[in-house]
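Human: My hope is that you can spare some time for a protein that puzzles me. I am handing you a single protein, as its sequence and its fold in token form. Could you go through the record with me and say what the backbone is doing? Take your time, and here it is.
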Amino acid sequence: MATPAGYRVIAETAYDPAEVVRGYTGKTLYVNVGTGAVEERPVTQQMKDIFVGGRGFGLWRLWNAIEPTTTWDDPANEIVISSGPVGGTTTYPGSGKSIAVSLSPLTGNVIDSNAGGYFGPYLKFAGWDAIEVQGKASENVVVFVDGVKGVVQLLSCPEEDVNTHVLALRLMKTFADSETPRDVAAVSTVTTGSGAEHTRMGCLNFSFFDLKREAVRVKQAGRGGTGTVLRDKRIAALVVKSPPVDAEANRPADIERLREVGKRITKEILDLDASQCDMRRVGTAHLVEIMDEYDLLPTHNFKFGSHPEAGKIASHIWRERFGQSMPDGCWLGCTMSCSHAVDDFLLRTGPYAGEKVLVDGPEYETAAGCSNLGVHDPDFVLEVNFYCDTYGIDTISFTTGLAFAMECYENGILNAERTGGLELRFGNGDAALEVLHQMARGEGFGAVFGQGIRRMKETFARDYGADAGFLQDIGMEAKGLEYSEYVTKESLAMQGGYGLALKGAQHDEAWLIFMDMVNNQIPTFEDKAEALHYFPMWRTWFGLVGHCKLPWNDVEPADNAQTAEPAKVPEHVDNYCQVFTAVTGVKVEPEDLILQSERVYTFQRVFGVRMGFGTRQHDAIPYRSAGPVTAEEYESRADRYDAQLKEKVGVDPSGLSTEEKVKKLRAFREDQYEQLIDAVYKRRGWTADGVPTVAKLRELGVDLPAVVEVVEPHQ
């Protein structure tokens, strides 16, 4: 086949694209960018039975590729990307997810991160259930999977600008059959940028071609630094070309059942979304004012949960700024259509200053992260959003990490000399943007900051004599991963949702704030432990099959509140049983979906133990996640905290200094967290140190000899 101008073939392998049958192709693709090796690997029935697909396939391939001593920057580390058996369905919304698995530069442990975009489904329709890339190239390379001609190529990449908004469009046009929009739309890429190359918090950008705008769009696998791994391997991009996609591309076992359940959820979305979360017009950014109202919107490094200027970045602002004339989806046929963008945004800083660009988003996390910096300016949010995306930097790690640095500055731990002249005070948007551009260049304070909160804490204590205890209290990371953007002080269950999440402080395992704090539906430790069993297992399932979580509970049936367990949205749980059965031919009930997830979730916990993590000490959280660290925080909510001291702790706050009140409340809340951990471990079938028991592995059917060998010393 002809090689694009400027590219050089390093390795090339022809293959026979496998037909998808009931959601699977039956094989995965291995590419070593260091040696040029390309291999076809079988998907066994055991893989499907135990690991299902998506995140499960990624974990299993990575487990077999590395050793307990492997580090994130070792050539042996892999990035594995998979969709899942239901991924690529066009008749049920939210079926375009891809899941990336690797060892994290931030945590050192296994990381999983999901993204929309077309890459995962296109990879499957090109003949592969997953791709695993390993090794390190000696030059910038592109891995190209041509699912039309049946060729895998490892190519040298001549492109000088690796930032996503430039590179993704060039690659999509370069590897398409022509520059007509329909041909370009048959190509999808995974890219990152210069920020990923110089920091530990690099994200992966999964592309899709927006036919209405005739422009490239991207969705992020943001968490944990997978983009950093990509650039460490000197991979500029992964590129896939797909044959045409239709409603039967997965060759489902029962297409009529699939269509019927798809019609049901689509009708609900069209009828109810505008009066519920309004995802089709504003997406996840609708949460800004809701979080602010309930004192959950992070401000000034999670010290506070609301701000008088939060309305400046609330949903009505984004409704006005989003440029599409109709809803946008990040996969074909998704009627949730929450993937919004701002057109022709004029950049005022950085290497592309003066250019008008398309900005994907903002999502809630990005807007709320800017609130955490004390900046409530929509243009600032969009500038941060664009540059984080194109540089390949996770917006959550960037904003949460910078909020920590700003608090350090305001406490004298940092100063202008240590930041290279930057006044990193809350509200200083110009300084924040300069840090972002330094990160992309690997220069100045940006190079220090780009290592993440955990390493900044070590640096500031060692080099600047900062109080390590104070840094631990205010450094909003768990397991090395920066917190996503919710204030959890009044929700013990959500504190556990962050601290017990396998990858670190991310809300995609369990979001229990409203069940716990607002509605008081889970009052006891046992109730909370049950929620911290069910919801992480349930949410894991989406990443196994290639689904997006949003159509599950961001639109609900009109009578959902009258059901026995409205938080679970039982009608939609039944939908997913129907979808899985319709695609794979395997009949499942709701408890089967939980069991599928529990197998993989428990295996991932053991994987963490194998890598030197995954025990109780690693489930610790910074105290700011649980309560007020400083007198300022306490006094900002003094009535609330005084009442809690009296009613929950049994201490009369009268006559106590604020510092004494902080100390007594802290002792109570830290004990509550430890009791919660005990209850969760018991519910999950883990030891008191948080390690799954051999009996639990046997019960779940994941008692593989190598897995049992890891946990036996911990029994």
Observations:
- The radius of gyration is 24 Å.
- Residues 8-241 form a domain with the Aldehyde Ferredoxin Oxidoreductase;  A, domain 1 fold (CATH 3.60.9.10).
- The chain has three domains: 8-241, 268-482, 492-714.
